[in-house]
Amino acid sequence: MAINQCELRPMGKSIHRKEDPRFIRGQGRYVDDIVLPDMLYMSIVRSPYAHAKITGINTDAAYQVPGVKLIITGEDLEKMKLAWIPTMAGDVQMVLATNKVLYQYQEVAAVVAETRAAAVDAAQLVEVEYEALPVVVDPFRALQPDAPVLRDDREKKSNHIWHWEAGDREKTEEIFQNAPVVVSQDVRFQRVHPSPLEPCGCIADYNKGTGRLTWYVTSQAPHAHRTVLAMVTGLPEHKIHVISPDVGGGFGNKVPVYPGYVCAIVASLKLGQPVKWIETRTENIASTGFARDYHMKAEIAADENGKVLGLRVKTIADHGAFDAAADPTKFPAGLFSIVTGSYDFQQAFVEVDGVYTNKAPGGVAYRCSFRVTEAAYLIERTMDVLARRLNMDPAELRLRNFIKKEQFPYQSPTGWTYDSGDYEQTFKLALEKIGYHELRKEQAEKRARGELMGIGISTFTEVVGAGPSHSFDIMGIKMFDSAEIRVHPTGKVIARLGVRHQGQGHETTFAQIIGEELGLSADDVLVEEGDTDTAPYGLGTYASRSTPTAGGAAALCARRIREKAKKIAAHLLEVGEEDVSWNGEAFEVKGLPSRKVTMGEVALAAYTNLPEGMEPGLEATYYYDPPNLTFPHGAYIAVVDIDTGTGAVKVRRFLAVDDCGNVINPMIVEGQVHGGLTEGFAIAFMQDIPFDEDGNCLAPNWMDYLVPTSLDSPHWETDRTVTPSPHHPIGAKGVGESPNVGSPAAFVNAVVDALSPFGVEHIDMPIFPWKVWEILRKNGVTE
Amino acid sequence: MKTYSGDFTIPVSRDMVWNFLMDPHKVGPCLPDLLSMDVSDNHHFRAKVRVGVGPIRGAFDLANSITVEEEGKSASMSVKGGGMGSGVDMNANMLLEDLEEEQGTLLKWTCDVVVSGPIATIGGRLIDGQARKITEQVFENIRNALVSLKSEVAVTNEEAE
């Protein structure tokens, strides 16, 4: 049961979410809810072709539509040097196509009109002449020497973007040469999309009088967006005011700067009126940042007893037409080298090659710390392949190979320093809670009767919280985060942070951290995020980084306030500062606990009754640069039953035991886990964005790209263990992405386990019923 | 790209089929769901046709051109255009052969079709069947027109007699 927000010592308690009443009652305020005087609307003309030369654009008919104010083409942007913009991955991308288009639904022109309807109507009348060019949709085909070179703007005349590797190639090779057992598995993580309920959109409002641009945008990283805009457009940064109002889901989709944003800003600069652009569902799925699309091959070297020795991974990363992945600068394949997971490999070697194809650009971190989901899926899937080869229970194989509790801090062969963990404890709790051995017995009985039941395990390790600024930056900006706390005379607090929540519950959890540190209730603390004029600079919310970074900043900022408060308390208690101690709710005189003052009393004194010479006020700012990332982990177990007639998979049970360190609000953690598991379920069973050979996107809407409802979703069981992060100010690790990262392998392992009597070793996601049905039919189970 | 092909016999002479195919005023109306057409010369015409695949409904504006490959025997027709942000690109090849004993003409056709844009994506899995149906319909219409032309000719001949 959730408890009241007024309670003191709020840390670790399931306090009601402060933001829920407004969201549940439809009182959230999203970008599209904002209506400004004289506001215009923008619609984008997009390419029907995946690869074509543009031989002409005629806007005459479109300009005839009543209410049309402006039509922008690539040529117009070229004159302003805005036809191309940098991507976060160090590539460049077209804002509006100039000479050619490189993917279907690419932006070709932008139409601005007095009404949304007029803009959409006029966009249909923009005549674009195309000359079709050969299309490359398969990244392996793109790498062949005779493949057409898609990016003729680059110096390198090849579709190969970059090569990246981690670990020791030679030493890993040696292990493989001498290993008694080697398994190899090709694993594809299909192209999926974060597909937030609220698509991308913005209002650009350039005020000619003040020379200031106010930009309302549904953004996960408003400060970073402002800096990027300043760099790209040349507008001075202090003359750009970014406001990210309530965000209706992000999941990584709202980290990049999209062409539509630039067009809306250009239109407002030209017209001096506010310009609103809101995507359609199809535009969101077909043109904004997709996720995954990794073609991976893993090989594990092991001994006969199942002790893993070495891991070798080779991956082709399909980035589409531009490398618009949202990765830290030095990590083109994100944190993919966490692929050794929870297991103690002696050596590992991982290589990834990025490739261009005629598909929408991206590679964003969909509820994921930059390619961690791909890595976790690959290792957890391949461990099961090894177990099958050794004829060993996959649970036993994992128990033999976990990094042991006493090995932390653990140096991984690909260069990570794992902060803390107790994998065995977490896994054993999961096995016991789900009744693993009874389930195996039940499975054996069912198999004898010809029924298909499977049990799938995933014991993943995550890496989150980018990051220490020595390693992590985005476009040069170091990945720290920040908090600013102001305690007002009556003891009420406004706290502002550099991150931006999208439903994660920051308004509650950060109030709990600050309330705990200052002896106040969560109700006394108002958390504000998303306004670059008021909030301190930060890199935003994604990659489960808010609690590891801004959460740390909030705690340390509050402690900074407490230091000053202690001096004021000593003054009020008329004792020396060394005689004052903090009891969690008030300052008291050491040895005389009845003599105390609360933070409320101190706050009033900070403005009314200060010790002589002290600066008035009670405020602080803290920029927190974490010393390391955090490494949450979990043990997930799925139990599935397969309909032998139709191939439909029913997830009968799913247990998620997470260890995300110290927990701020258990109810919110549970909610995050439920949401992430539902997304993982959708990826495993429902979602894929395929393309035909002409580059037509075959799932650009919710008829073909399926989003699960509560009717589709299994019942989730959750539990947790607690291994605090030793370096985080409150021992927290972050949890938002764990369920999305950890669950796909559990689902797929369960289905493969059910079908293993037929010799099935792997099925690529999404596991549609027809894929299972074909296996059943081939084996004579069904007709 | 999808390729469709077929053949059929028409109980009229090869000359008559050839003349029909070379006349935009006759071939144009064989496009299914034709709304309007505008002939620019003997080998070129524009046509507006109604299109509907799945939830997408609207009109396509198509530029058609006929090319003679071998006089009286083989020709190609390209249909290019689109609408509603979608595009279609068709290239058809037609080959005429005399049937034995002046039984009429054999028309063999192959057609490459590339469909792009929302009509291909939102139409999704419907598009293949739809493109095949439309292509086959074009040739079915050509055949029917020629057959009815033959009976018209027959009637006229009868009247003349």
Automatic annotation (TrEMBL), chain A:
InterPro entries (UniProt xref): Ald_Oxase/Xan_DH_a/b, Ald_Oxase/Xan_DH_a/b_sf, Ald_Oxase/xanthine_DH-like, AldOxase/xan_DH_MoCoBD1, AldOxase/xan_DH_MoCoBD2, AldOxase/xan_DH_Mopterin-bd_sf, CO_Mo_DH_lsu
Cofactor(s) recorded in Swiss-Prot or TrEMBL: Mo-molybdopterin cytosine dinucleotide
Enzyme class: oxidoreductase
Enzyme Commission number(s) of this protein: 1.2.5.3
Annotated ranges, domain Aldehyde oxidase/xanthine dehydrogenase a/b hammerhead: 25-134
SUPFAM superfamilies in alphabetical order: CO dehydrogenase molybdoprotein N-domain-like (SSF54665), Molybdenum cofactor-binding domain (SSF56003)
Keyword vocabulary terms for this entry: Molybdenum, Oxidoreductase
Coiled coil: none
Sequence segments annotated as region (Disordered): 717-736
GO MF assignments: anaerobic carbon-monoxide dehydrogenase activity; carbon-monoxide oxygenase activity; copper ion binding; iron ion binding; molybdenum ion binding
Protein name per UniProt: Aerobic carbon-monoxide dehydrogenase large subunit
Organism: Brevibacillus thermoruber
From TrEMBL, chain B:
Transmembrane annotation, as ranges: none
Pfam families attached to this UniProt entry: COXG
InterPro entries named among the record's database cross-references: CO_DH_gsu, START-like_dom_sf
Protein's name according to its UniProt entry: Carbon monoxide dehydrogenase subunit G
Source species: Brevibacillus thermoruber
Species classification: Bacteria, Bacillati, Bacillota, Bacilli, Bacillales
